Amino acid sequence: MTRQPRKAESALTRDADRPTPAPAEPTDLAALGKAATAGAPSVSAPRPAPDALPALQRIQALPSWLVGRVAARGRSLVAEALAGQGVKMLHHAVLAAVSEFGPVAQADLGRKLAIDPKDLVGVLNDLQADGLTLREPDPRDRRKNAVTVTPAGRDLLERCATVAEAANAELLAPLTPAEARRLIALLTRLHEA
Q: In which residue ranges is the amino acid composition biased (Basic and acidic residues) (predicted)?
């Protein structure tokens, strides 16, 4: 079988969307993998021990590298879906926070989202110009602005929720529903640790 020539690409991004070999030696990570795929058919041959892999493949077999690549793909899918609704990811996050916490003081919103105040002002200006939020003097402290979501903003959030869920379904499509639930449970444990 002859190999087709590949496009020039960075060694670190090559095959980024394909699974990379994981250690075959019994480790806690291997046990997690077995637990996550219990009952699923085996889809790969035995894998070499990590120290038997070339240096780049060792990096690409690390959980941190794999999680980072999957996260980048997930962000890309969601960003593309949100762009179809005319909104950027940061704008969507701010709009969602305003919907959840509003009416909320602009300064409090920045602290809750850990966004630099100058960046937040720009995002809020964009959202208000698009008719998605309102900034009015806070009745509790007239020196501050309180931000609220408009009906148009609520409608956009509903549309964004639908397309973001579809993007995440695309991300998880290679997994069975049980595997996807297990992955989410494991990621949640890691996030909360």
A: 1-18
